[in-house]
Design goal:
The chain is of the alpha+beta class. An eight-stranded mixed beta sheet has the order 34-35-38-37-39-40-41-42, with helices on both faces. Strand 1 (about 10) and strand 2 (about 15) form a beta hairpin. Residues about 1-55 have low confidence and may be disordered.
Length: about 725
């Protein structure tokens, strides 16, 4: 139940990248140095409870927390801003390309090429490659990823999934006759495609295919296929028989195909297999997965992800959590080539297709990234010895000119220049280039917005560790990021502590980060404190931490968000009477559960959250249809026991529900049933349904309304005089 308000982009070369999202941690809002527009602080309005202090040139207004006026408005967040991610290097031209998500264009996705000297380039120095009516997005697993594949070297062809039809389209760049893209797969919305790789020896695409001939989740069929691009619309099945497939990767000589596969009830972070099939011997070929060579994952309790062949040695590399952390291995050996007590592979591996948290440079060296103490580290090492660990290991970070957070690395043809998405908690995310040989400051090539907010209103987070308990009551530690109120035009001397908004991320097998997120700064610049929690079950802290939610969803996560809030109250950083919580999807479930089963929070907002676990188990899509088996178990009595909608009698605080009416992952009936129950019980509540939205909000007007509605809701509940608050129909208030 991972969520993106505008999908995070998943790059075949570097994991989850940046996107315009609320409230997930992938929002892009970056200054363009030459066109930057700085929004200054507005003058404070005189009103009851507000005092202006200081000189005319340096006014500081004394005003209650939550009443501060901020330039970080919902419209400022969406206006002129786009999501930028999924970097690619065109194998034919060497051009840098990416995908943009555009809220102002209905949330559609566009393939763009970096060409700052072009006559019609955008403010990001890019030109559109895909047609203006196209929407480049796949719905495999509903979360998509890996929607774009390039043809071989010397080819100008790009293959992409068209969202409306889910057909695979062939686009010829710089076509002299200006021809439109042509389909290479059948019409009819039956098939979906993702995670493709061009196989030069057969001139075909190796891809994950999802067959929706029978649309019920249990009848949807996932396979790996080879797609012909000659217009025949023919496809050959290469691997079938299991529930799920990912990462089809042909060997450099085209004779073998490696891939990841798994079956219900496992998820890709629970237990998967790495298998290899022979493609060269037509007589011996079989598409039956259980007859393909099993390289790793034979114990049925290890997560194997992101296979990749070395382009020169043809050794097969992959990431495994067999050591307790997602480390990099080779050729089925028991020892990692880079043994570290940190996770490689990206922030939330497995949710989207096409993720790749490491790769190879032209000289054969491996590069990989991991996060340490909130900052990304780059490792470059030699792997010339196919039998031993990596050697000549070099590590790079901020001291070498890299930004504090970065990912999605794609190397240039020479290998010296690395391109990536990067930023920090106070520097919005952008596309950068960086020289490996010179190690100078990374160069910003493009940013997602021409807007720039003053440092005066940017809250810088700090990581906090706080005591909590696991499902058996044993003492544990959980983590989060605390953002204090920040707006230098204001202070508050009349209240001891600010209201606190606790955020529960989606997944639940995912995590937050300190990447710049104006959806958090929206709150802190108005006088709220924010705690972004990595509750037990989150990724990035190793397998033991990630598995804390096994059979314990609705217990561990709820205990952790409550413990985090209580920790900040004890530290004097939050008002115990004004503790509110929000979360989307799985985070919405944690929100509703915390409000229902605990008495820590006094208000909450659920964004497309889960209220009825039993209904969800029978009504969600295939990818997550058995997710609850591992998170909760199979006992229907436990489902009811942990479903907030079954225990509304114990809920007594106001709730706001925000929901898209086309959501296939958490259907809108979840929010509608919850609202009806709350209304009938007399609990202050409000629901807002957004037409045409799926799992997350992609349209600018709905992103804006979601933020403004939540602020207005908490303002009404806590009696905060929110400037220019939108009007809400809150029943029972």
């Amino acid at each position: 139940f991972f969520f993106f308000l505008i999908d995070s982009f998943c790059d075949m070369r570097g994991g989850i990248l940046a996107a315009l999202v609320i409230p997930s941690r992938s929002f892009l809002l970056s200054p363009r140095k030459s066109l930057g527009l700085t929004f200054g602080l507005t003058s404070a309005e005189a009103s009851v409870g507000r005092r202006t202090l200081g000189s005319v040139c340096n006014m500081v207004t004394d005003s209650p927390f939550g009443t501060w006026t901020s330039p970080i408005t919902s419209k400022a967040i969406t206006a002129g801003s786009v999501g930028v991610g999924s970097l690619h290097i065109d194998p034919s031209s060497g051009d840098l390309l990416w995908i943009e998500g555009r809220p102002q264009e209905g949330g559609r996705y566009v393939i763009c090429k970096y060409d700052p000297d072009a006559r019609i380039s955008s403010e990001r120095g890019a030109v559109d490659v895909s047609p203006k009516e196209s929407n480049v997005r796949t719905r495999v697993h509903e979360y998509g990823g890996g929607a774009v594949t390039f043809g071989g070297k010397g080819s100008k062809e790009i293959y992409y999934s068209e969202f409306a039809t889910q057909r695979l389209m062939k686009l010829v760049q710089d076509s002299p006759d200006g021809s439109e893209p042509t389909p290479v797969t059948p019409d009819g919305n039956r098939f979906r495609f993702a995670d493709g790789v061009w196989e030069p020896s057969t001139l075909r695409l190796m891809m994950v295919r999802e067959d929706h001939l029978e649309p019920h989740p249990k009848d949807v069929v996932n396979q790996i296929v080879a797609v012909s691009v000659d217009g025949s619309e023919s496809m050959e099945v290469l691997a079938t028989g299991n529930d799920f497939y990912a990462a089809p990767r042909p060997s450099p000589d085209g004779t073998k195909l490696a891939y990841i596969t798994w079956n219900h009830p496992n998820m890709p972070w629970d237990a998967t297999e790495l298998r290899v099939t022979q493609l060269a011997d037509a007589g011996a070929f079989t598409d039956e997965t259980d007859k393909h060579d099993l390289i790793a994952g034979e114990d049925g309790d290890t997560s194997i992800i992101q296979p990749l062949w070395h382009p020169q040695t043809s050794d097969l590399y992959y990431i495994s959590d067999q050591s307790g952390y997602w480390n990099i291995y080779r050729n089925g050996t028991s020892a990692s080539i880079l043994p570290l007590n940190f996770d490689f592979g990206g922030r939330a591996p497995g949710w989207q297709l096409g993720q790749q948290g490491y790769g190879f440079l032209p000289d054969g060296k491996i590069y990989a990234t991991y996060t340490k103490d909130g900052e990304t580290k780059l490792i470059v090492a030699s792997v010339a010895d196919s039998d031993g660990p990596a050697t000549n290991i070099e590590e790079y970070g901020t001291e070498h000119g890299l930004p504090p957070q970065f990912g999605g690395i794609v190397p240039s043809a020479s290998g010296d220049t690395l391109y990536f998405i990067g930023g920090s908690s106070s520097i919005p995310t952008s596309v950068y280039s960086w020289s490996l040989s010179q190690c100078g400051p990374a160069i910003q090539l493009a940013s997602s917005s021409s807007l720039k907010f003053s440092d005066n209103v940017i809250s810088v987070p700090r990581q906090v560790e706080f005591p909590t308990t696991d499902s058996e009551g044993k003492a544990k530690t959980a983590f989060g990021y605390y953002y204090p109120p920040q707006n230098k035009a204001y202070q508050c001397t009349m209240e001891k502590a600010p209201p606190l908004l606790v955020k529960a991320h989606g997944g639940p097998t995912a995590c937050t980060s300190t990447s710049f997120n104006p959806a958090i700064q929206f709150w802190t610049s108005r006088g709220f404190a924010v705690l972004d929690v990595d509750y037990g079950g989150s990724t990035g802290y190793g397998r033991e931490y990630r598995r804390r939610l096994r059979n314990s969803w609705g217990i561990v996560d709820i205990d952790d968000v409550c413990a985090g809030a209580q920790y900040l109250v004890k530290e004097g950083l939050a008002d115990p009477e004004r503790l509110c919580i929000d979360g989307g999807s799985a985070g919405g479930y944690t929100t509703l559960g915390a409000l229902t089963f605990k008495d820590v929070f006094t208000a909450g907002c659920s964004l497309y959250g889960i209220g009825d676990l039993t209904a969800l188990a029978g009504d969600t899509h295939k990818f997550e249809s058995r997710y609850l088996d591992g998170l909760i178990g199979k006992d229907e009595a436990i489902y009811k026991d942990r479903s907030p909608i079954e225990h509304v009698d114990s809920l007594s605080c106001p709730v706001l529900l925000l929901q898209g009416d086309e959501d296939k992952i958490v259907p809108p009936n979840q929010a509608e049933m919850m609202f009806s129950t709350l209304k009938n019980k007399g609990i202050p509540s409000c629901i807002r349904l957004y037409k045409g939205e799926q799992h997350g909000f992609r349209k600018a007007e709905n992103i804006e309304d979601a933020l403004d509605s939540e602020l207005a809701f908490f303002g009404r509940v806590y009696g905060i005089d929110v400037p220019d608050a939108v009007q809400l129909d809150i029943v029972n208030l």
